[in-house]
Design brief:
single chain, alpha+beta, Endonuclease I-creI, 4-stranded antiparallel beta sheet, 17 helices, 10 strands, elongated
Length: 411
């Protein structure tokens, strides 16, 4: 009747394995045992319900001392509540238990907006579909379960907050789990925000209608040809939006997948800007997006990616001044430990440090023509000693130079 072996039932009786909650409830129902009687029996025992999964942290209990359950406020406190759920790591299992024995209500732990920039975007009329699409195409993916929404993976809490705000403003919905740590024992843990409730399925469909797909590469065991048969991501709708929307798109691409680093040319320090993405269509979009804003990002090739493309790149003082003028850098997002020299600094700060070093090289011959490693160490000194000037200073300083001025005028 239960589809299990005699050996499994023997393990239940001997206490070696826990009884699945569905089997427990079904047995009670068939035996004529009431819910109250079953709950009394549960209070006398300490069953373990160990199910794989992670507990969402978007909803919380009152400040009750209940170890694992952080999601609901029960109207009645009971020891069985904590005992049964002591080792429960499944939202589904917990929900079944609560709906069986308790009346409860959810209480959000967070109250959007969490960021000032999202409120600023709303006030200035930014289309929320733009930041949502960019963030999910760069750092999002579909949920592993069928028709269960999507998730966002990024190590910056600020980026999670921005996405949460944008989806809340656009769809009036909160995530099912927020900023959950996975791979926590690694040097660099990963954090995930999940949108996996029933209501999120419709949001996912709405987003897919706009961008086609947020899957930007084949999975490890998938053939490239099979992946290309699927709907492909398409960001071209942003090109028809207001320039303010396009700047927001570039800002988020730079924050999520962008990098700023040093390059040397004729003995001087120059900034290089790169947005990493292996999907050819996204790179074509980035070329057109940058051109619409007066920039000149070009696709870079690589044999190491599935598509032969690794991203788009632009370089030079001209590009730096233009990006500073349009405020193309998101503040509050730090460079990760993958960077050899600039961990913990913002990309905008690194750019300003490169411009500062270039300015100094024009006046100090001892800094001119030094190897790239020494230039990076000079940048580290500038950043640590906080010797940066405001962005407007560098905009004014370099805009007075004839070549830069002509380029900016001809845009």
């Amino acid at each position: 009747m239960f589809g299990v072996s005699t050996a499994s039932i023997r393990c239940w009786e001997n206490g070696r394995n826990s009884v699945p909650f569905e089997a427990l409830m079904r047995t009670a129902s068939m035996s004529g045992i009431s819910k109250n009687a079953l709950l009394e029996d549960i209070e006398k025992t300490q069953p373990k319900m160990c199910i794989r999964g992670s507990l969402p942290e978007i909803f919380s209990l009152r400040k009750d001392k209940i170890p694992y359950v952080k999601n609901f406020i029960p109207y009645k406190d009971t020891r069985a509540y904590s005992r049964v759920l002591r080792n429960c790591k499944s939202m589904l299992m917990m929900n079944k238990f609560l709906t069986t024995f308790f009346e409860y209500k959810k209480e959000p732990k967070i109250a959007p907006p969490l960021t000032e920039i999202s409120t600023e975007w709303v006030d200035t009329g930014i289309d929320m579909d733009v930041p949502i699409s960019v963030l999910l195409v760069t750092e999002g993916c579909k949920s592993g379960r069928v028709n269960a929404g999507f998730k966002f993976v990024n190590n910056s809490k600020y980026m999670h907050d921005i996405l949460l705000d944008c989806i809340y403003f656009r769809y009036k919905s909160l995530p099912s789990s927020y900023f959950i740590k996975i791979y926590k024992y690694r040097k660099n843990p990963t954090f995930v925000t999940y949108y996996e409730n029933k209501g999120h399925v419709q949001i996912a469909k709405s987003i897919m209608t706009i961008v086609g797909n947020i899957k930007t590469s084949p999975h490890e065991t998938q053939a490239i040809d099979d992946y290309l048969k699927e709907p492909q991501p398409d960001m071209d709708f942003i090109l028809s939006r207001h320039p303010k929307d396009r700047v927001v798109a570039l800002k988020l691409f730079m924050a999520a997948e962008g990098s700023v680093y040093l390059s040397t040319r004729f003995g001087f320090a120059y900034p290089v800007f790169e947005i990493g993405c292996a999907h050819p269509k996204i790179n074509e979009f980035l070329e057109r997006l940058s051109a619409s804003l007066g920039l000149h990002f070009k696709t870079q090739r690589s044999r190491r990616t599935w598509s032969g493309v690794k991203g788009t790149r632009a370089r030079g003082i001209f590009t730096a001044i233009k990006m500073l003028q349009m405020d193309a850098f998101l503040e509050g997002v730090k460079i990760t430990s993958k960077s050899k020299y600039f961990e913990g600094h913002e990309k905008r700060e690194v750019l300003l440090a490169i411009l500062e070093l270039h300015k100094r090289q024009e006046r100090d011959k001892s800094l001119f023509g030094i190897p790239g490693k020494e230039m990076n160490l000079e940048l580290v000194k500038i950043l640590k000693n906080k010797e940066l000037k405001p962005a407007k200073f560098y905009i004014d300083y370099f805009s007075k130079k004839k070549k830069v001025s002509n380029w900016l005028d001809n845009g």
